[in-house]
Write a structure and sequence with these properties.
Length: about 210
Amino acid sequence: MAQINPNSCFYHPNLPAVMICYRCGRKICTACSKDYNGLMMCPSCYHTVPTPMPTGMPSGAPMPIGMPSGPPMPVAGSPVGGMRPPGWYGPYMQPMLARLWWIPLGLVGAAAALILFNGIALLSPGFFAVWTAFLPWVGLFGVFGFILGIIFGLVLLGTIVMVLLKFRVFAAFIIFPTAIVSLIIGGGFIIGAVLAVIAGILLLLT
């Protein structure tokens, strides 16, 4: 399946984009570029802004109803690949962490898998003996360590759903204690707990 050119026009994927709409940030071709008081906009934004003030209006004439009363927007639309207006966060220019939102989800998923595997592996007498040699307290839990591993792993998987539902902060504050408490069973060879903590920090930053 052919990939869509990331520099193609939002409205005409077969045409190259030459400008970026100042208002919404969409990439647009020459045919879609609409001039609004020196600002280049896409057709959708152009038809939703107030009608520009006519030039040559007599001094002191009353301003028509619906006309913008504040100063005009500072800069015009930016060419594709050129400088963007300061503070612009359209769909093609977002903070790095916002664009990499999938990384903490991947870390949480890996942590959940490791902790689940750790819990299931504790049912093996050989693994249990080797693991208790490194972490003696694991032997105090016996089979209950397996149950804890399953619970902690499922809780972390549930936080992925919370993030997808836009409850990032709530998910992060569930991930932190779950990851720390999971250390009592080894936390997926410790790595699972560390990955979960990193993922929680990234969620709070995005």
